[in-house]
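Example 4.3 (complexes with small molecules)
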Amino acid sequence: MAERIVVLTGAGISAESGLATFRDPDGVWARHDPAELATPEAFARNPGLVRAFYSARRAACLEARPNAAHAALARLEARWPGDVLLVTQNVDDLHERAGSRRLIHMHGELLRSRCAACGHAWPDRGPLTDAQRCPACGAAAVRPDVVWFGEIPRRMEEIEAALQACDLFVAIGTSAQVWPAAGFVAQARAAGARTLELNLEPSAAAQMFDELRQGPATRLVPAWVAELLDG
Ligand code: OAD
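Answer. The structure with 2'-O-acetyl adenosine-5-diphosphoribose bound is encoded below.
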């Protein structure tokens, strides 16, 4: 029986909650240029545009509800006798609203703001505006507390230690086109873990997995969790 499980999720797990993925034909990066919206340089050039983009994503996140796949992962964490670590690339809060507690947001959190001047970060559900000031230092440099291209993902040491020690690695709803998350399957494999991909279509890393299951997350994830917990 697999005791230590690491689960990596991506935008595909929130798609059926109504939040767009990035690289599908109707995805966020099909409609917008990431170089204009999701880099420190874009924010320096045009902070108003970046703030408006993330304000709209905040509003969509607040409207969305966790789905059966988020709920199944929370159930796994609550019932599994071994260790479960959930690592998400998603900046929405649907995993925590479904009840997941052992969770790493490696790309940050949409419902938090951060001061680009002093680094102070705080919960913030409202729109990001150009008039907003940092509550700690007063600078007009408020940005979403997310990781942009060219920035370093969060809590990588913890993630790498968990990958090194895991017996089972499962990737759900991610295209495996963004590093370092795209490399997690190889790290887990090298450490001797069994690997499973649950995705609508084979990802760019599909050939690295021991097993692939194709379909929507709301069907595949509850079925996989039931298999583990109920035999
Ligand atoms: P992508 O949009 O790149 O990939 C989403 C994956 O989910 C694709 O492989 C889809 O086939 C799959 N998918 C879509 N709907 C699904 C469903 N209902 N059930 C299961 N799978 C489904 O999103 P990510 O891999 O999460 O980073 O993207 C990684 C990072 O790129 C994001 O965190 C974000 C983005 O740029 C930053 O902004 C830094």
